[in-house]
TrEMBL record:
Upper lineage: Eukaryota, Amoebozoa, Evosea, Archamoebae, Mastigamoebida
CDD domains reported for this sequence: S1_IF2_alpha
Membrane-crossing segments per the record: none
Keyword presence, Protein biosynthesis: yes
Alphabetized GO MF terms: ribosome binding; RNA binding; translation initiation factor activity
Protein name per the record: Eukaryotic translation initiation factor 2 alpha subunit, putative
Pfam family, one: EIF_2_alpha
Occurrences of domain S1 motif (ranges): 24-94
UniProt entry tagged with the keyword Cell membrane: no
Cellular component, GO annotation: eukaryotic 48S preinitiation complex; eukaryotic translation initiation factor 2 complex
Length: 299
């Protein structure tokens, strides 16, 4: 935030609906200062309210304590005591496992990105962040798991905001800001099938079956590539997981029905699935012929 924004109370708000964390919750904290009693920290998700990590809760290894108490250092801590009346919060570093930390940081990153978007909207619309969170932010987070997930869903389903009665000027700022700062990462789908037909005219039968699969997928962009007869790979790129899987399964079913009607067979070697970036690179190396433009070899 710029200097004027730091002093603007409208642009300050906790990320989460509850004002204080619960015991055993994980929090991202920033070290503010340290003393003989322990380390004082600011809880990032709760608009920097203060908590303390007692010296005994820093680490099981003494040599780590100096490094962990460096001012400005960020850590994931476990809440061990909360007094909501006094605002007194005790936390622990040594009780936080690496697995818990990794899962928490994934969710925190989402919350942080959504929080920045909320701040931009508040600034554009000249309303407080807490007003926005109360109006739609916290309800959406409760419904979709995180506000970030709700924002991302709105890129393909803008009506996710309809139930909340959001004023037109705020809704416009919301759509514009989300579109600018969030881009949908398309998913890559893949299925492996063996299609063969030993009857007379088997090559044409295979081609007709594969064409049925492409036709079934409509304008979704399904591509079928020949690896090595009779192995073919179906590829599809779409942002929506459910729709992509439905198209892939339908295409495989269409190919299977067509080839079997002509006396051939279709064996699914790999069910439709979403592939990783590493697998995508391997696919580009292994599949070099497009079944839509190349003849299949007749076994």
């Amino acid at each position: 935030m710029s200097a004027p924004d730091i002093d603007n109370p409208k642009l300050h708000c906790r990320m989460l609906e509850q004002k204080f964390p619960n015991e055993d919750d994980l929090c991202l904290v920033t070290v503010v200062s340290s003393s003989e009693m322990g380390t004082y920290v600011a809880l990032k998700e709760y608009d920097d309210i203060q908590g303390m990590i007692p010296m005994s809760e820093l680490s099981r290894k003494r040599y780590k304590q100096t490094r962990l108490t460096r001012v400005g250092k960020e850590e994931v801590a476990t809440v061990i005591r909360v007094n909501s009346e006094s605002g007194f919060i005790d936390l622990s570093l040594k009780r936080t496992t690496p697995e818990e930390k990794s899962a928490f940081l994934t969710k925190y990153t989402k919350n942080k990105e959504a929080h920045l978007i909320m701040r931009l909207i508040a600034k554009k619309a000249d309303v407080s962040m807490e007003e926005l969170y109360t109006m739609f932010g916290w309800p959406l987070a409760k419904k979709y798991g995180t506000l970030h997930d709700a924002f991302r869903k709105s890129l393909t389903e803008p009506d996710v905001f309809e139930p909340y009665g959001i004023p037109a000027n705020i809704l416009d700022a919301l759509h514009q800001t989300i579109s600018h700062y969030m881009t949908i990462q398309p998913l890559k789908f893949r299925a492996d099938i063996e299609v063969s037909c030993f009857a007379i005219g088997g090559v044409e039968s295979v081609k007709r079956a594969l064409l049925k699969g492409v036709e079934c997928a409509g304008d979704s962009g399904l591509v079928i590539k020949l690896v090595s007869s009779p192995l073919y790979v179906l590829f599809l790129t779409l942002p929506e997981r459910q729709k992509g899987m439905e198209i892939m399964y339908a295409a495989v079913a269409a190919i299977k029905a067509q080839i079997e009607s002509e006396g051939g067979s279709c064996v699914v070697k790999r069910d439709p699935c979403v592939v990783s970036k590493e697998e995508e690179i391997e696919e580009n190396e292994d599949t070099t012929e497009d079944a839509n433009s190349q003849d299949a070899e007749d076994e």
